[in-house]
Specification:
Length: 231
């Protein structure tokens, strides 16, 4: 399955064709996909203001498309409205971080168990490449790229389950990475190193098709992520 995350650049370039009758629709969809993705990978950090004009220009869409996508993101709780009407990225509360950890654990350990039966060589290769991307981004100090690779790792794991509905449900749920410390651009390097190691252990367990071991490593990964976020 092609990860939707890797399609964002294509979407940005296709937005320049504005002649189609449903161009308005397409622009709003593009703005929504781009903004939600950038929020999830913490490129736009919690409590950052999303300025309509700036994003309209950057994504090459009209301002009403950005506004429409912001209304949609507001409904999903990814953004909130400030006193004077501006839109800001939501910051997760402790309870939300905890709930997200539980949701991720439930969905991803289930997906891992299925993946042990269903993952193809291609799935495993893609996960391995994403692990390498993550390591390279960390080494270069490109942390937004590292967050993106982290998110992709988990989406690929869902896809490896072989259950496209499960993978789709996960994508549509916009499940964020644990933010907070990371959001403040102060994620210590050691957190990234830990993530890298944990991802490798999960990948190794998948290679061995060892359900119990993989589930154990996933739990460790999520527990550590939650703990670090709440610190
Ligand atoms: Zn991870």
């Amino acid at each position: 399955m092609q990860s939707s995350l890797s399609l964002t650049n294509n979407r940005a370039s296709s937005s320049r064709e504005e002649q189609a009758p449903n161009a308005e629709r397409t622009q709003a969809e593009l703005a929504y996909q781009e903004l939600s993705h950038r929020i999830l990978i913490l490129e736009i950090a919690p409590n950052d203001r999303i300025v309509e004009q700036f994003w309209a220009k950057k994504l090459q869409v009209n301002r009403s498309a950005v506004r429409e996508s912001l209304t949609r993101l507001l409904g999903e709780g990814l953004v909130y409205q400030g006193e004077r009407g501006g839109f800001f990225v939501s910051e997760m509360t402790d309870d939300e971080i905890h709930e997200i950890r539980e949701v991720r654990e439930i969905l991803e350990t289930a997906a891992f168990t299925l993946a042990c039966d269903n993952a193809t060589t291609k799935h495993i290769k893609e996960i391995e490449e994403t692990c390498n991307d993550f390591a390279n981004f960390v080494r270069k100090g490109y942390f937004t790229g590292a967050h993106e690779a982290d998110l992709r790792f988990h989406h690929l794991l869902m896809a490896a389950s072989g259950n496209s509905r499960l993978a789709h449900l996960y994508e549509r749920a916009h499940i964020p990475l644990f933010q907070r410390k990371a959001a403040l651009a102060r994620t210590p390097l050691e957190d990234f190193i830990k993530t890298e190691k944990e991802h490798h252990l999960i990948l190794e367990a998948l290679r061995k098709r060892d359900k119990k071991l993989g589930v154990q490593h996933l739990r460790t990964h999520f527990n550590r992520g939650e703990k670090d976020a709440l610190e």
